[in-house]
Amino acid sequence: MQRQARHQHGFTLIELMMTIAIAAILLAIGLPSMGSLVSSSESRAARQELWTALNVARAGAVTGNRRHVICPSTDHANCSGGLRWDHGWIVFVDNNENGLRDGNDAVISIANAVRTGVVISSTVGRDRVSFRTDGSSAGNNASFTICDRRGTSNATSLVVSNPGRIRSGTPTSASAAQTCALLAGGA
Predict the structure, then answer these.
(1) pLDDT value of position 145
(2) Contacts of 132 (CB under 8 A, 6+ apart)
(3) CA-to-CA distance for 102 and 93, rounded, in angstroms?
(4) Pairwise CA distance, residues 126 & 71, whole Å
(5) Cβ atoms within 10 A of the Cβ of 98, count?
(6) What's residue 98's pLDDT?
């Protein structure tokens, strides 16, 4: 009678520990870049959402032949004032052209608070953007600085010119620092 040799298949404790160590090293290398990717994606999405709302306001003013305003709003009904836009905003038809949402001004678009870890602030003195019926923007250029957890070096901006053109840009170092400080302060 012949006897067959039994072969056991499996992992030894040393093989298992080496596999876990290699996986931990790869995870430690990959997590920071994954965090950066997530922050970049959140920032891009917030910037695109604001860009879209600005275009909705401008197009609404032109096609509806009525002034449209976009302003920061925390209650989705009225302008909250201030320079922080990351808590949300509204676009409304400004029937009496006073820049404020009154009872008879229809809300066209509402944006809830933007992504976690992203702050949006506007230029000092520009707590709203008003578009005239020809598509131009009342007042001086409005700049929006968007900052995420990656810091000032990755901050971006949107600029609304007097003729109403909306473009991407790079914020000044002072504007980026001021906006990113809001992220750190949490206010």
Answers:
(1) 94
(2) 61, 67, 138, 164
(3) 10
(4) 9
(5) 12
(6) 87
Structure confidence at residue 35 (pLDDT): 66
Tens digits of per-residue pLDDT, 8-54?
Answer: 677 788 888 889 999 888 888 877 766 677 777 888 888 999 999 99
Cβ atoms of 87 and 74 within 8 Å: the answer is yes
Per-residue CA distances from 154 to 55, 57, 84, 89, 163 (Å): 24, 27, 19, 23, 28
Written as six digits, the tokens of 97 are: 């052209």
pLDDT in tens, 90-105: 999 998 888 888 888 9
pLDDT of residue 168: 92
User: Which residue type, as a one-letter code, is found at position 59?
Assistant: A
Written in H, E and C, the secondary structure of 66-133 is CCEEEEECCCCCCCCCCCECCCCEEEEECCCCCCCCCCCCCEEEEECCCCCCEEEEECCCCCCEEECC
User: Residues near 99 by Cβ (< 8 Å), separated by ≥ 6?
Assistant: 69, 128, 130
Q: For 72-88, b where at least 16 C-beta lie within 10 A, e where not — what string? A: bbbeeebbbeebbbbbb
